[in-house]
Amino acid sequence: MSPDLDEDLHRARRLAFAAEEERARDLLLSLLARIAQSGREDLLIDVVAELGSIYLTRGANDAVADCIRTIGPGVRQTRFLQVGLFAADGEHDAAAIELALLAPEQDHLLTYATILCARALGEDDLHSRAAPMWERVIADLGPPGADSGEADDHLLVTAATGYGRFCVETGQLARAIPWLHRAGARAAARGWELATARTQLERGAASWSAGDHLMTEQLVAQAYPVIARYARADDVSRCWLLFGLTRMGAGALEAADQCFAQAERHWRELGKPLYIHRILLQRSWIPIFLGRFAEAVDLVGRAREALDSWPRASWLQYARLDDHLGTIWRADGLADLGFDGAGDPSENWQAAQARQATALGVTYAEPGSAAYRNAAAKLERAADLKVPAALAVDSVRYSIADADARLRWASRVAAPMLAGAFAVAWEADNTQLISELIEYHSARGTFSSVPPSGQPGDWATTALSSEPAELAVAAAGPPAPVAAGLTRLGPLPPLRMQPDSAPILGRYRALAQARYHRDVTAAETAWSTSP
């Protein structure tokens, strides 16, 4: 390679490291023309591979495919680009196969390809499958070194930022923060503005998850101008989502809705159904607060359409969508009960915000009145949505072997949904449902030597929601023995509270099976809980 070409190729790589992809692309294209004039076809592969990597970063998948065809089969750069292309297209199994075929001695390419796969799995909410990949990436990074080169620093920053985001999304904030600080410090030392801003964005998401809304606002406000200047639409949308969440948390409903609208617009431009579905669910909180329940139901319907259009949608996402729809019906029922915090569609933004700030959380409807009966019908409809979804999601615990992951799932994912199920049963004065939920909650699992019914760990391939408003935890693997003897955590058999009664929650368990194909209880003889 001639010195000039060599230097220009390195300069293009440095530009790519600094997220100056357009300038790097133009330089690489000029190199192609010079290579053709010099007859140095042996340089073609390196230049085209660099172009393909840039196109991967910017989501130009058709251009990546062109680069793969230009390089041809049997070359390590081709396999790397193919891994990235499969991952970007959501073909995760194919990406994993190609990843396994990458030569182990190509440490840098192998680690970077693993990052691409893990990151794409997270984008599709498949955190359980991403977890072992991130562990491999972190192990490959090794201890920090002061004499690392630019390529090594870029790999570290990319890996640490991606792993930090994964940890935030899976509720592991104590792990996330050190890696995000490390990535930010290394990026700042290199003068990589966008990489630094991205670490601030992820730290902002972590702050939101920790309940520090002021720090969220500060960090995202610092990151946004740089992210917007580099025109990263996905990160821009995440900034607007976090801006909306902080404003909604402060009661500024109009400003929050405007932020959510900005996020939705960018995700529609990117054509991401999963993210469109999420932002529509988030936006539906605004009409809920304003008492415009039909508008909120319409937004959830549009969110369901977006989820239906996504080929990798999971039962878990539908369960959480149903739970949210139940929340809308619950709010509508509470409005009929005269709840003082319920919205009034005739109010303007300022009046709605003032009412939210002064509400005492009390209801005024008289039992037996027409309003009370209307509320009862709506709350029953809410229970039919929220209770089966809560039971289905809670049943996941039986297939989580790792105790820490099981605790995070129970506390951060299942518990809020079960709390909503209890609340709607209480507000509907449904004492039978309340007692059955208490009975279920008092004895939700059992140890035995018999594996749980169904396919253990089948949920591990399903998606977990990663929006900052309700960060889910990562999945663990299938159930595993914890000791000799009584060895396995599993679901309880059906519970019968009275000797002559049917097992509890029967209709809701049947709905959970019909809607989400989840067995809430084991297929065994019912246990009697009566004396």
UniProtKB/TrEMBL annotation:
- InterPro entries per the UniProt record, alphabetical: TPR-like_helical_dom_sf (IPR011990)
* Domain of life, source organism: Bacteria
Query: What is the protein name for this chain?
Result: Tetratricopeptide repeat family protein
